[in-house]
């Protein structure tokens, strides 16, 4: 008889927010940002069962659960979900913004990296969806997420380059890539950039900005996240959907 090389760990309790619900054949896989261990991926098996009153799996819904671990595989056991009502009432574009934010979290935060700051930001984001404009919320939270992930930009000195051929996206660095030209960021945009990074959620500060300034920082955010993570934000294509 051969011995298994897998290490079995006892069932553990967790609490967190659901980021993604994926289907692979008949099986579902949850990506959850937990307070205890950061991002975890969980297989929903036949042994998984919801507690009394448990809701359905929903992105940005809160969940408490027990999980069993064998090697690198975690299986969801008993759970209780608290669905995010705001998610059910979003327009298509606003829903896409919520998915862009989720994707930024998954791109920027390494698997199983505990981060109380990111966890708190996720909670605020999920709970403010019903009260704030999801686009503005995503832009502010996205820049703060990049900072928490260790990619805090030096707003006063950062240089931004773009392609002269009409290709979307920006490059951040001391020098541009071949055939790139430098974008001249106005003092107003740099000042708004700082304010977004330093925005204090608990004080519910009032932000005043131009539509042009916000749009510029939105475009810069997506390029910055893609450059830092070296991954494309797939959800962006959904914003162009007719």
Automatic annotation (TrEMBL):
InterPro entries from the UniProt entry: ARFGAP/RecO (IPR037278), RecO (IPR003717), RecO_C (IPR042242)
Pfam families: RecO_C
GO biological process entries: DNA recombination; double-strand break repair
Any one Gene Ontology cellular component term annotated for this protein: bacterial nucleoid
SUPFAM superfamilies: ArfGap/RecO-like zinc finger
Protein name (Swiss-Prot/TrEMBL): DNA repair protein RecO
Taxonomic classification: Bacteria, Bacillati, Bacillota, Negativicutes, Veillonellales
């Amino acid at each position: 008889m051969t011995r298994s090389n897998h290490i079995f760990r006892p069932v553990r309790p967790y609490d967190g927010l659901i980021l993604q619900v994926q289907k692979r054949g008949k099986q579902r896989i949850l990506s959850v940002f937990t307070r205890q261990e950061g991002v975890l991926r969980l297989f929903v098996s036949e042994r998984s069962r919801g507690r009394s009153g448990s809701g359905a799996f929903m992105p940005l819904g809160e969940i408490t659960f027990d999980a069993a671990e064998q090697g690198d595989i975690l299986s969801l056991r008993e759970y209780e979900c608290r669905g995010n009502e705001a998610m059910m009432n979003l327009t298509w574009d606003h829903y896409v913004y919520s998915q862009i934010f989720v994707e930024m979290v998954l791109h920027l935060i390494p698997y199983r990296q505990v981060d109380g700051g990111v966890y708190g930001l996720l909670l605020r984001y999920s709970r403010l969806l019903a009260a704030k404009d999801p686009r503005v919320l995503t832009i502010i939270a996205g820049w703060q997420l990049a900072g928490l992930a260790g990619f805090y930009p030096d707003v006063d000195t950062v240089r931004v380059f773009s392609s002269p051929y009409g290709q979307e996206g920006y490059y951040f660095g001391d020098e541009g890539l071949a055939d790139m030209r430098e974008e001249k960021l106005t003092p107003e945009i740099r000042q708004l950039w700082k304010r977004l990074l330093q925005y204090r959620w608990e004080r519910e500060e009032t932000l005043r900005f131009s539509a042009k300034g916000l749009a510029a920082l939105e475009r810069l955010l997506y390029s910055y996240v893609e450059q830092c993570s070296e991954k494309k934000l797939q959800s962006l294509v959904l914003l162009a959907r007719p």
